[in-house]
Amino acid sequence: MASAEHSPLTRKLSAFVALSEVELAVLERLHQRRRSFVAGRDMVHQGQSAQAAYILSSGWVCSYKLQADGTRQIVDFQVPGDFLGLRSVLLRTSDHSFEPIVDIEAAEVLASDLLGTFARTPRLATAILWAASRDEAMVVEHLVGIGRRDADARMAHFLLELKSRLALVGIGSKEGFDCPLTQYHLADTLGLSAVHVNRVLRQLRESGLVTFRDGRVTFHDYGGLVELAEFDPAYLDQTAGPLLK
Amino acid sequence: MASAEHSPLTRKLSAFVALSEVELAVLERLHQRRRSFVAGRDMVHQGQSAQAAYILSSGWVCSYKLQADGTRQIVDFQVPGDFLGLRSVLLRTSDHSFEPIVDIEAAEVLASDLLGTFARTPRLATAILWAASRDEAMVVEHLVGIGRRDADARMAHFLLELKSRLALVGIGSKEGFDCPLTQYHLADTLGLSAVHVNRVLRQLRESGLVTFRDGRVTFHDYGGLVELAEFDPAYLDQTAGPLLK
């Protein structure tokens, strides 16, 4: 079992695969090439051919697509323990851009190292396939949110998902979590205007459910928020214990 | 290299991994448990715990989520060579339902067989991770489509994506393809009403770009459609040749 001294990625994958000492060591070795990136400057551009992925150790990143008319759709956020650009390495081109929201620390993983690791430690390949499946399940939830949920439920669902993701890597508590996202990030994620985002957050606060202010999300009525969002965390698969023993 | 006598899944994965004779044999053995399902009856229900995935051999399937208010968001369609419920097996619960659109043939793959295959043939695990990444890239495109593209471009992008996916498994031609989807499928996929879908299809036809009628999509001006949709097939990664030699 991974302990707090391990990287966030190791903690996350350990939720799915009971990693051996050898596998733990291989995973930690993938973190050797440490890099720092400053907030607000793209790490990877849409359309760039991808030679490397990154494992996020600290900080938050957003991945987004720009349309030709200049509008931006944020596809997802990455928090510690998440891969950036794993899909881009496998598909050999980045279908989106990555921008650090705060200064971040990440490990660079070359495509060849990644493919070599998969070949030598197949249980790690399976664990990373699990993580990719979980990421896909989140994008599906965002798709359903934009397609079919009203603005309040969409926001509530998004905040609950973030809480669960952070909890898996030991960040935040059941009271809330620190969150560097602005109203513009929320707007471009949820398909709302910034003004609408503010209105929704005010409603959620005045209903006594949740407050998002000064970089902090605070839950007042977790159960009520879950009900509003129809939030079922099964797609995040983080309570059942390892599938691969 | 996989030939036409191989399954559609083998043809698809061969676009990414140059599979050995042993790997080809293992992949074909995953197809042993053949099953038939009739159109219109759910194969897997949202929330069902998932013991098996399916590999689609022939026919079309849609995967969707129902909201509590009864509205349906179609997340994706599966065509021959696609996995159904791979994510559900890994996440141990199905986050959506699967419904065959026509009568279909599929191979049932038990979770244990799948995990065993990954452990013994890691290059197949990598190839399936590639396929999962490609599926995720498609969901991202749908998210961007619903969030940011206008209805004409959304429809055009969707039809072009389907054409590319089918071409990879040897179905259809550059003139067009057979397509069993109804206006209701299109509406629930693209976040439009059925009336709006009809209007969009009429506009595309009258602009001389594409016709979708009587179960057949026919391209009249492929280049014009690509331009309207801003369609860049890079995210489907099917022209560069195998990454894993």
Secondary-structure blueprint:
2 copies of one chain form a homodimer.
Chain A: H1 8-14, H2 21-29, E1 33-37, E2 52-58, E3 61-66, E4 72-78, E5 83-84, H3 86-91, E6 97-100, E7 104-110, H4 111-120, H5 122-148, H6 151-168, E8 176-178, H7 183-190, H8 194-206, E9 210-213, E10 216-219, H9 222-229
Antiparallel strand pairs in A: 1-7, 2-5, 2-7, 3-4, 3-6, 8-10, 9-10
Domain Cyclic nucleotide-binding (chains A, B): 15-90
Domain HTH crp-type (chains A, B): 149-223
GO molecular function (chains A, B): DNA binding; DNA-binding transcription factor activity; kinase activity
Structural account:
Two copies of one chain form a homodimer. Chain A has a four-stranded antiparallel β-sheet with strand order 1-7-2-5. A three-stranded antiparallel β-sheet of chain A has the order 4-3-6. The radius of gyration of chain A is 18 Å and the shape is globular. In chain A, 43% of the residues lie in helices and 20% in strands. By secondary structure, chain A is of the alpha+beta class. Chain A contains nine helices and ten strands. Chain A folds into two domains: 8-132, Jelly Rolls, CATH 2.60.120.10; 139-236, Arc Repressor Mutant, subunit A (Orthogonal Bundle), CATH 1.10.10. In chain A, α5 (122-148) packs antiparallel against α6 (151-168), α6 (151-168) crosses α9 (222-229) and α7 (183-190) packs across α8. Chains A and B meet through α3, α4 and α5 of A and α3, α4 and α5 of B.
